[in-house]
Write a structure and sequence with these properties.
The complex is a heterodimer of chains A (573) and B (206). Chain A has a domain at 387-568. Chain A has 17 helices and seven strands. Chain A has helices spanning 3-31, 39-53, 63-87, 103-114, 124-127, 130-160, 170-195, 223-232, 253-277, 281-306, 337-350, 365-376, 387-407, 420-446, 460-474, 488-517, 534-568; strands spanning 61-62, 166-168, 206-209, 215-218, 316-317, 412-413, 416-417. In chain A, the strands form three sheets. Chain A has a two-stranded antiparallel sheet with strand order 1-2. In chain A, strands 3-4 form a two-stranded antiparallel ribbon. In chain A, strand 3 and strand 4 (215-218) form a beta hairpin. In chain A, helix 6 runs parallel beside helix 13 (387-407). Chain B is mainly α and 206 residues long. Chain B folds into two domains: 20-59; 60-205, no CATH class. Chain B has helices at residues 3-10, 23-53, 55-58, 111-127, 151-165, 169-178, 195-205, and strands spanning 62-65, 68-72, 133-134, 148-149, 180-181, 192-194. Chain B has a three-stranded antiparallel beta sheet. In chain B, helix 5 (151-165) crosses helix 6. The longest helix of chain B has 31 residues, at 23-53. At the A-B interface, helix 1, helix 2, strand 1, helix 3 and helix 6 of A face helix 1, helix 2, strand 2, helix 4 and strand 3 of B. Strand 5 of chain A pairs parallel with strand 3 of chain B.
Chain lengths: 573, 206
């Protein structure tokens, strides 16, 4: 580890911290329907959208209607993506004449992008046409991000409301999120990325004649426009197979810095939005603090692990010098080195982004443990746009419930009594996740040809590859231990894994929102556990860690932890 | 004051009890409209601006020599001859395949990785005895197209290149220094040398 590496972490933290309040305020203004400075341009477009789609913007929805609209929209977008993938051979913007995507892969990819996972069982530059990338995949980066944000906002709104049957209008929330937040931010960001070297064109691939007289076909395309929303929407689906490790997606250390910042910027801002919309800014910051603690801890361990030399390699410069990063450089890019690769890997899995700037499969065992653990904790460390906030609010409900049990009073949260139904919904959310991950992993490990036969590495790391796949799918992350080979079974099963991990977990959240909205507000009493104190931050962090650790520790000990111990004792596979 | 907040304060109980306007119809219209806006109009708009403002970068930072494209400044290409500096080993396709980016995805505990690295180390050590082999020279990058090597790696190779070209190591060290990029703002990333740029400079220097 180097002082410079830690300085990069500090610089990142400061810049992130400075964005929280302005971003949070803007998000709140948009989602509370207030005026923004973009109104003169966007308000007419917003009105036209409602008119063309037959949306009555005046009408609010109860939680069931909200959930149904959310599911309907997601289902239709998923079907459209499937159709575009299958038919890309005859559709326009296909200069490389890509053939139609196979049925199982098209299903997997459609599910993957609809759920904000962006798991990729394909090599983008040799599988997808430009039209598919733009209109089939990048659109979901917008849509799924918006859906995540509006579900979180519906929950926040419900906490604030009293004796209300409704939690907002799904179409209004989604339209405003798309038009006022994601679109302007993406346009500015995409142009900035081009200025820094990311390609943006619709040309056929270029054939270059290299200095040594060979030919090299250079894949490119509309990369920057996809890259911008891929990071801002915590989607993570790369234009190229190598994702943000590819110099065309992430050409310089500065673009790398922008990319990690843009993963966290909306989720971190949403903590401020939470405080502002519920009228308790201190609570927003307490949640931010819990997230930041978990983020810093994860980075520390991952950076430390990756800066270590390989124990069985001799004769190479594996220690830090002034002009070489040392450490584990397999699967990492020179321009990023160890520190920025560790920072990226921590952030992409704290959030549900899943973009990678280095190959997690080649991380040291303990370095690889951190991304996996981050996803297993539910991606609540800032988390996916919206999904991170509502995930963390589920843990907040658990935390105040536990605090209530300790003092023997009915728990309250921001004036709402937390009762049996609320805790049940919160538990449902917490239980669905490990249930699906662990059971699917177990099944695939037991199927020799389908599961174990497809791993790129054997021994405990092979288990890690399978475990990581189902964790990443259910967590809607999309990063991978990418050595895992695709097959029909994985395509189908991971598709369901992602859909369940997204929508089955959103429904308890919306049910909780519906229930909270109709409650009366009770004034705080001396027995109320305050949710804006350092004590609350510590309790919340503890709840996240304990629930995650209790659930997944056995599986982790058979994967990365065992691999670490065996490697240290000189055992290879 | 817009609609949403006006409603949120006024509507508290009964809302939307009558049959909702078909969710499916709204979903289909909304999806088609938004796909046109975000899937077609948005990327084309960005493409237009990008091509107008930054034509070289928007087209992939291609380098032309004598009217022929020799590669992209951002992507590594294979160099095998002793007369050139070599990029990092590549796991993209059959090596440096810019239509099949990717890493080796070999685990640290994989025998294949350790054998490959140790084999490369032993080979390179013979080229420049008494020096530690730079780690980036024996590890594949994440993309397989990493255009850069560490300055350590460039200085390590200078001896071989000098011999093949009949130049002195000092001459090459000057070239390397000229082609070394520092950390961005003195802070971000790592110092690095772009192999294609360096080799083009080398050909120009002879």
């Amino acid at each position: 580890m180097s002082a410079n590496g830690w300085l990069q972490f500090v610089a990142f933290s400061i810049v992130l911290g400075l964005t929280v309040k302005p971003v949070g305020i803007y998000l709140a203004r948009v989602l509370e329907g207030q005026r923004t400075w973009l109104d003169p341009i966007l308000r007419p477009i917003e009105r036209l959208t409602y008119k063309l789609c037959g949306v009555n913007a005046e009408r609010e929805m109860n939680w069931r209607q909200y959930a149904f609209a959310m599911l309907g929209f997601s289902a239709v977008t998923m079907v459209l993506t499937y159709i575009i993938e299958r038919g890309q051979a005859v559709l326009p913007w296909n200069p490389q004449h890509m053939t139609g995507v196979g049925a199982d892969l098209a299903w997997n990819t459609a599910a993957s992008f609809t759920t904000n996972t962006n798991w990729q069982f394909y090599t983008g530059e040799s599988t997808m046409s430009y039209l598919t990338q733009m209109a089939g995949l990048a659109t979901h980066n917008f849509f799924s991000a918006a859906v995540g944000i509006v579900v979180a906002i519906a929950l926040v709104r419900a906490i604030k409301r009293t004796q209300s049957d409704t939690i907002g209008n799904f179409w209004v929330d989604t339209t405003r999120t798309l038009l006022y937040i994601l679109l302007p931010a993406s346009i500015i960001y995409a142009v900035l990325l081009v200025a820094l070297g990311v390609p943006q064109n619709l040309h056929a691939y270029t054939v270059a004649h290299t200095l040594e007289g060979r030919t090299q076909t250079i894949a490119q395309g509309p990369v920057a426009s996809q890259e911008a929303i891929k990071m801002l929407g915590t989607n993570g689906g790369g234009f190229f197979n190598a994702n943000s490790a590819h110099p065309f997606e992430n050409p310089t250390p500065f673009t790398n810095f922008l990319q990690i910042l843009s993963i966290f910027i909306i989720p971190a801002g949403l903590t401020y939005t939470l405080g502002r919309m519920t009228g308790s800014p201190g609570h927003g910051w307490a949640v931010f603090a819990a997230m930041y603690l978990l983020f810093a801890a994860g980075f520390g361990v991952l950076y430390w692990a990756e800066a270590h030399p390989h124990p069985l390699i001799h004769g190479a410069g594996q220690t830090l010098t002034a002009s070489a990063p040392g450490g584990n450089m397999e699967g990492k890019e020179v321009r990023n080195g160890i520190a920025e690769s560790a920072l990226f890997a921590t952030i992409t899995t704290d959030a549900s982004c899943g973009a990678v700037n280095g190959m997690h499969d080649s991380f040291t065992p303990l370095g690889g443990l951190i991304p996996l653990t981050n996803i297993m904790l539910g991606e609540v460390v800032f988390g996916g746009v919206g999904a991170g906030l509502y995930g963390m609010l589920i843990f907040v409900v658990q935390a105040v419930f536990i605090a209530g049990l300790m003092v023997g009073r009915t728990p309250e949260y921001l004036g709402k009594k937390i009762e049996s139904y609320d805790v049940k919904m919160a538990m449902l959310y917490v239980l669905i996740f490990p249930l699906i991950i662990l059971s699917l992993t177990a099944v695939f490990v037991l199927l020799p040809n389908v599961g174990l036969g497809t791993t790129n590495n054997s021994g405990p790391h092979g288990l890690s590859e399978i475990l990581y796949a189902f964790t990443s799918g259910a967590g809607n992350n999309g990063s991978a231990l990418a050595g895992l080979g695709p097959n029909w079974w994985y395509n189908i099963t991971l598709g369901w894994d992602m859909l369940i991990g997204r929508f089955l977990m959103m429904i308890p959240v919306l049910a909780l929102a519906g229930n909270l909205a109709q409650k009366k507000s009770v004034p705080p009493s001396p027995g109320t556990f305050p949710v804006n104190t350092p004590l609350f931050t510590v309790l919340l962090t503890g709840v996240v860690l304990i629930l995650g650790a209790l659930t997944f520790f056995p599986a982790l000990s058979l994967g990365p932890i065992l691999e670490h111990l065996l490697l240290k004792s000189g055992q290879l596979f | 004051m817009s609609t949403a907040s006006a409603i949120s304060s006024s509507i508290s109980t009964k809302a939307a009890t009558e049959k909702e306007h078909s969710v499916w119809r709204t979903s289909i219209r909304f999806t088609l409209l938004m796909t046109l806006a975000f899937g077609i109009a948005y990327p084309l708009f960005v493409t237009g601006i990008a091509g107008a403002l930054f034509p070289h970068k928007a087209a992939g930072s291609l380098i032309e020599q004598n009217g022929q494209i020799v590669g992209s400044e951002l992507l590594s290409q294979g160099f095998a001859s002793d007369r050139y500096f070599h990029p990092r080993p590549s796991a993209a396709g059959n090596g440096y395949d810019a239509t099949s980016s990717g890493g080796s995805n070999l685990a640290q505990s994989n025998t294949k990785l350790v054998q490959r690295m140790q084999g490369d180390i032993d080979k390179l050590a013979a080229e420049n005895p008494g020096h530690l082999v730079p780690i980036d020279a024996v590890t594949t990058s994440g993309s397989g197209l990493d255009p850069d090597i560490t300055p350590d790696n460039a200085y390590f190779q200078a001896r071989r290149v000098a011999k093949a070209r009949g130049m002195t190591e000092q001459q090459l060290n000057v070239l390397i220094r000229q082609n070394t990029q520092a950390r961005t703002f003195g802070l971000l990333g790592e110092p690095r040398v772009n192999v294609l740029d360096l080799n083009i400079a080398l050909d120009a220097a002879k």
